[in-house]
């Protein structure tokens, strides 16, 4: 089958950062696995980090976590989908990825594709949707309807995860959402997706929040956490809570002690990596979001479609994500 992979770590612009490959097709699905014909995939920061740092050990590495496609075959323990079903999902880091014609994936982390979206539009959503949902509901404990009179500071509003945090927070909580954005186009995107207020993370965040009369009890940091840590600590309300999805440099959690602020990590791959008993919650939440999409309550976040996937276009997509200026998500269609 056709696939796009790499055999050595290179910068995105290197001609061998990705290669067009012909590799063996996956085996027939076993257990809870399904074999999916991939119709579209998107690129996330996790793809770029692994391309830069993880040297393949046994042949080419196939990345790709977001995908939308059609079920080709199902394993003997599958009960959620049958061949022909249209699905979307985010895969897992310790298995071969979606940058291929066919992929094996556990049905318990797969949702039904929103009927109102194309495969490309749907492929933009799973990883960021799961991260946003789990961060808000499972880590910060914000259940549906919660947060009246409270505020959420979202650091990095215009990126893929931030784009879903804003929408899910507006649809499922009563929080006032304050997103950070530093450019006119990213600020406009945040307003379009539901942010009540915009602050510039290049300036004094706490001072800007004070000027608009907001003291966030909750903080969701999606990027540049270490660079903004002092400002986050200053901004969060006493007895608040912070959820992080990255920190590319050390942070000092002891600074949270005077305010009794709790700190949480969110990694949407945790459930499938460890096979947790509640793995199927990712299936349920993707289905819930698909329902919201089909009823017009949440929109997809694809802003760039580069067309059919090739190694050259994959290199372009990785360069776009690494630029740090992406608004929304970049998608490629199936091989």
Describe the structure.
This protein is an alpha/beta fold and 335 residues long. Helices cover 30% and strands 23% of the residues. The strands form three sheets. Strands 3, 4, 5, 6, 7, 14 and 15 form a seven-stranded mixed β-sheet that branches. The model has no long low-confidence stretch (mean pLDDT 96). It folds into two domains: 2-125 and 277-333, Alpha-Beta Complex (Quinone Oxidoreductase, Chain A, domain 1); 128-265, Rossmann fold, CATH 3.40.50.
Q: How does the SSE layout of this entry go?
A:
Elements: E1 2-5, E2 19-22, E3 33-43, H1 45-53, E4 66-74, E5 86-89, E6 102-106, E7 110-112, H2 119-123, H3 126-139, E8 151-155, H4 160-172, E9 176-180, H5 184-192, E10 197-199, H6 205-212, E11 218-221, H7 225-235, E12 241-244, E13 262-265, H8 270-274, H9 281-294, E14 302-308, H10 311-322, E15 329-333
Parallel strand pairs: 8-9, 8-11, 9-10, 11-12, 12-13, 14-15
Antiparallel strand pairs: 1-2, 3-4, 3-6, 3-15, 4-5, 5-7
Helix pairs in contact: 3-4, 3-9
Protein name: Zinc-type alcohol dehydrogenase-like protein
Domain Enoyl reductase (ER): 16-332
Subcellular location: Cytoplasm
Q: Can you describe this structure in just a few lines?
A:
The protein has 335 residues and is α/β, with parallel strands linked by helices.
